[in-house]
Backbone:
């Protein structure tokens, strides 16, 4: 190699090169992370939507079931079933009702059964 | 570097600086200065306000039995700009929803972005359509969550519960009066869609959650309501009246325990109901009460201390000419005590009681009993009735009003008047709403009884109550209203029906019975009204013979349900009769035929 050629050769600054490599790598990593996180955000958004839909669906099913229970256990439905003969119920006759009379007071200071005054039930 | 090169470099750099400065200024102009304008335009294009619907509150009875509930449904909508295969979508949608394809095609023909194809589609049907659209890769059809109102008990309590319109707004009954609490508050969310019409979740904007409507609890007890409904149905079958009303109320608090009107309608089939069936006759129908109104005249005379319960009044032997017009009694009475005027239901006696008080004071008592004004119950459309001031009375009005003519009252007002007697002279505002709670069960409002005024003294109310016990006895006009084991106080009423063209309709009557049980410490007040009942013989068309027995059956069942303790003296007699294994009603029929007793004692009132 002649002298003039050697003179035109530039020396590589290893520290500077390393710095640039680190900065570039950092920027590349940051960019990739940004893209990855953005995609994750969309992915999580879709999952959130799916979970929301599932919740709505479950709530809907629950509401339908509640409404059906209310309809099937309503008085009208039970009356209808009673008329159809599906339920067998016989009213209790007065002769079969036994009413208990209040026991006589044993002593004034004893524990006494109490009855609610009228109009407070 | 020579000079030319340097100049070129400087010029190039300056050019670049100028160019990028222009870009920068343009960017600043667009991003900062024009930000709001362009953001608005972009939002208009992509952002949609999604409504999060609040669920309407439920209506429950006093024991938390469901009276009105919601069932989820779907509203099928379309965005015409998103449709990717119009013909296939029209075919599929019309087939799945059972709509004519021409109708669907017409709806989807334009470029509108929000087209309602069908409302209230059941979840299962909507789910099937959604799956088929997905499998066929068809776009542009969307499903919105909605709810429709259902009434598990059908026609039971229909006039009280009411119903909602298409927009879920209450338009009758509690649905209308409690609209503010039942409705809830819709929420919203700003969302963006992608090209396929799917939401881009990370771009969600401002969001406000919905607040579901509150639960409204009624004072009505469905068990008592059931008793009343069964009895009113039986009465409709037996007497075929034009209209009928039964009310049960707790006198101390004004709580309505049961209320039923006929004709009625099924709340789930309200589109098929006739206007006549939708009227809550307990509060919007005006009637001449007949002899039940005599309690007002008697209360006024006793409360003013003009007379005592045992003071005697000459009842003109059944015919009295006053003001140029004859006033009749159904039987010839000579002297009757004030008590017996109520027991025997003497028209002449009642007229003389009112005369002893005077027109102005009598009018004041009528108003104090709550007639001529709305009771204030939490139901829409209530009327105040018709009570004319004394200036508008004719010369004979003072003798006709005490027997319940020339006045218009609602069945609820008449029940309230009887409740005054049962409640020691206090007029309490009737209530149908017990409390309002959040869906989680937290009480936000609990209504307390409101005493409007002391109408008559407790002593007077006791005296009237004593007289009303006599009405439901062998001596009175309503022996058939008796309930075995209990003392009942009450008053019958039989008023000739007012002809809308003027005068009265021949042979048509409004029969009623208002009473309470037990007479000593009333647990409930009841009213039975039948308008134009049909009987086999005209002489059987009286309050004591028609409304009285209905009241008796309702009261007996209600007392059993409320577990009221029967009167001691009567209870002792029961074991002797138990050997026969007959029901109390049968025992009464065997020993004292109700119709015969009532016919013997009463008649007209």
Residues:
């Amino acid at each position: 190699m002649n002298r003039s050629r050697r003179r035109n050769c530039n020396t590589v600054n290893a520290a500077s090169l390393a710095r640039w490599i680190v900065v570039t790598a950092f920027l590349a990593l940051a960019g990739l992370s940004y893209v990855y996180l953005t995609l994750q955000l969309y992915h999580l958004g879709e999952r959130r939507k799916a979970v929301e839909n599932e919740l709505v669906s479950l709530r809907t099913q629950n509401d339908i079931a509640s409404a059906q229970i209310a309809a099937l256990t309503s008085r009208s439905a039970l009356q209808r079933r009673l008329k159809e003969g599906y339920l067998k119920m016989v009213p209790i006759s007065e002769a079969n009702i036994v009413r208990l009379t209040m026991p006589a007071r044993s002593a004034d200071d004893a524990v006494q059964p109490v009855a609610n005054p009228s109009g407070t039930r | 570097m020579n000079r030319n090169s340097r100049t070129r470099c400087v010029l190039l750099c300056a050019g670049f600086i100028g160019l990028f400065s222009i870009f920068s200024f343009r960017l600043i102009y667009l991003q900062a200065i024009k930000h709001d304008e362009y953001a608005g335009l972009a939002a208009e294009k992509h952002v949609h306000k999604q409504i999060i619907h609040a669920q309407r509150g439920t209506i429950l009875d006093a024991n938390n039995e469901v009276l009105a509930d919601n069932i989820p449904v779907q509203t099928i909508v379309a965005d015409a700009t998103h449709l990717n295969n119009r013909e296939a979508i029209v075919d599929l949608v019309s087939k799945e929803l059972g709509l004519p394809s021409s109708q669907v095609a017409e709806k989807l023909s334009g470029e509108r972005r929000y087209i309602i194809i069908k409302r209230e589609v059941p979840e299962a049907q909507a789910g099937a359509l959604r799956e088929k659209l997905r499998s066929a890769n068809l776009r542009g059809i969307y499903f919105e969550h909605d709810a429709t109102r259902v009434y598990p008990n059908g026609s039971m309590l229909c006039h009280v519960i009411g119903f909602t319109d298409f927009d879920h707004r209450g338009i009758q009954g509690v649905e209308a009066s409690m609209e503010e609490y039942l409705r809830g508050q819709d929420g919203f969310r700003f969302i963006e869609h992608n090209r396929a019409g799917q939401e881009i979740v990370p771009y969600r904007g401002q969001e406000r959650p919905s607040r579901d409507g509150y639960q409204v609890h009624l004072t009505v007890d469905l068990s008592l309501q059931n008793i009343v409904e069964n009895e009113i149905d039986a009465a409709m079958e037996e007497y075929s009246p034009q209209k009928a009303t039964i009310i049960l109320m707790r006198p101390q608090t004004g709580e309505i325990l049961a209320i039923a009107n006929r004709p009625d309608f099924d709340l789930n089939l309200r589109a098929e109901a006739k206007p006549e069936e939708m009227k809550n006759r307990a509060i919007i129908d005006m009637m001449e009460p007949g002899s039940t109104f005599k309690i007002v005249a008697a209360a006024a005379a006793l409360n003013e201390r003009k007379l005592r319960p045992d003071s005697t009044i000459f009842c003109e032997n059944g015919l009295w000419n006053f003001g140029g017009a004859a006033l009749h009694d159904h039987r010839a009475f000579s002297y009757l005590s004030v008590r017996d005027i109520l027991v025997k239901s003497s028209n002449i006696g009642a007229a003389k009681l009112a005369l002893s008080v005077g027109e102005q004071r009598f009018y004041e008592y009528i108003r104090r009993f709550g007639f001529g004004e709305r009771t204030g119950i939490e139901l829409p459309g209530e009327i105040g009735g018709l009570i004319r001031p004394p200036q508008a009375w004719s010369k004979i009005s003072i003798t006709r009003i005490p027997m319940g003519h020339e006045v218009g009252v609602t069945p609820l007002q008449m029940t309230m008047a009887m409740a005054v007697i049962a409640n020691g002279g206090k007029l309490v505002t009737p209530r149908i709403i017990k409390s309002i709670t959040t869906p989680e069960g937290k009480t936000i409002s609990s209504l307390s009884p409101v005493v409007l005024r002391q109408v008559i003294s407790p002593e007077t109310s006791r005296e009237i109550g004593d007289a009303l016990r006599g009405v439901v006895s062998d001596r009175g006009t309503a022996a058939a209203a008796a309930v075995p084991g209990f003392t009942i106080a009450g008053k019958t009423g039989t008023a000739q029906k007012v002809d809308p063209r003027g005068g009265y309709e021949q042979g048509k009557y409004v029969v009623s019975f208002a009473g309470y049980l037990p007479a000593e410490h009333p647990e409930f007040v009841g009213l039975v009204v039948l308008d134009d009942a049909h009987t086999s013989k005209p002489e059987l068309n009286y309050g004591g013979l028609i409304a009285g027995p209905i009241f008796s059956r309702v009261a007996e069942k209600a007392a059993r349900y409320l577990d009221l303790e029967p009167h001691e003296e009567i209870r002792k007699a029961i074991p002797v009769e138990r050997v026969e294994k007959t029901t109390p009603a049968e025992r009464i029929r065997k020993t004292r035929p109700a119709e015969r007793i009532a016919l013997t004692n009463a008649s007209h009132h």
Q: What stands out?
A: The interface with chain B takes residues 41-42, 44-46, 48-49, 56, 60-61, 63-64, 66-67, 70-71, 73-77, 79, 93-95, 97, 99, 118-119, 121 of chain A (CB under 8 Å). The mean pLDDT of chain A is 78.
